[in-house]
Amino acid sequence: MDQATEKKEYGKDGISVAERGRVEVRQDRTYLFIKRTFDIVASLTALAVLSPLFVIVSVLVFVDDPKGSPFFMQARVGKNGKEFKFYKFRSMVVNAEELLDGLIKYNEVDGCAFKIEHDPRITRVGRFIRKTSIDELPQLLNVLKGDMSIVGPRPPLPREVEHYNEYQMQRLAVTPGLTCYWQTAHHRNDIDFDGRVALDLKYIEERSALVDLKLILRTFVVIISGQGW
Fold first, then answer.
1. Considering the entire predicted model, what is its pTM?
2. What are the tens digits of pLDDT across the range 2-35?
3. Burial of 217 by CB count in 10 Å (0-12 exposed, 13-18 middle, 19+ buried)?
4. DSSP 188
5. With the CA atoms of 159, 165, 148 and 187 taken in that order, what torsion angle do they form, in degrees rounded to the nearest 10?
6. CA-to-CA distance for 65 and 155, rounded, in angstroms?
7. Any idea where the domains of the chain sit in the sequence?
8. Residues 83-142: tens digit of each pLDDT
9. From CA 141, how far away is CA 128, in angstroms rounded?
10. Is 173 strand, coil or helix?
11. Are 189 and 216 in contact (CB under 8 A)?
């Protein structure tokens, strides 16, 4: 077996996909119809109600760092590996991607993700909108377009997916979302990459209208308590 094949079939702990087990993706048509209908109604309503906030945040982001647009677009990977344009309020300096290579060595999380506690690329306004999760609001446009759902695994970057093994690729079996299990966990900052993948696969197997509703309510609690990041 060559290294590329081994990388896709085994995790870093040497356990194969067959040994871990494949997730069963729920394809109930009634549930999927309800989910998509809710996504459209909820995103449209939220965009209408929050439109004044969008204007205020856009102005604040521009005043804090006028070198770029208040909005940030980035390629992300969605259902079945399809890439789409992902929207956020810009919380970093314009050349953040160029500065990433010099910061990789300080990465504080394992696996394919990148995060450091005091990221120097984040602007002053950016720290606030990240803390309150306001930076995520433009993703309501992704939900309305159908790229994302309100609830689902967070969409990864293409460079992260390049390092996925076969087991981890299963988290791309459903439409990604704004929130899911690990985003609402009290100890989420302590959950490693493998733990996040496991929680995403747990959602894929358990998802239902009731599960989605519980996760939405838990997300509001996390945001109100100021635990967003």
1. 0.80
2. 433 334 443 444 444 444 568 888 788 999 999 9
3. exposed
4. G
5. -90
6. 27
7. 3-224
8. 999 999 999 888 777 777 666 655 655 656 666 667 888 899 998 998 888 999 999 999
9. 21
10. coil
11. no
Write the single-letter amino acid at 105: K
Per the document, the length of the chain is: 229
At 55, phi and psi to the nearest 5?
Answer: -65, -45
Provide the 10 A C-beta neighbour count for residue 120.
12
Task: Round to whole Å and give the CA distance between 150 and 41.
Answer: 11
| Separation CA 133–CA 64 (nearest Å) | 18
Instruction: Judge contact between 187 and 147, C-beta under 8 A.
Output: no
* Per-residue model confidence as pLDDT tens digits over 177-201: 999 998 888 777 778 889 999 999 9
- Token output for 150: 């309100």
The Cα diameter of the chain in Å comes to 57
Whether 153 and 69 have beta carbons less than 8 Å apart is answered as no
Which runs of E-coded beta strand occur in the chain? 71-77, 83-89, 149-151, 177-179
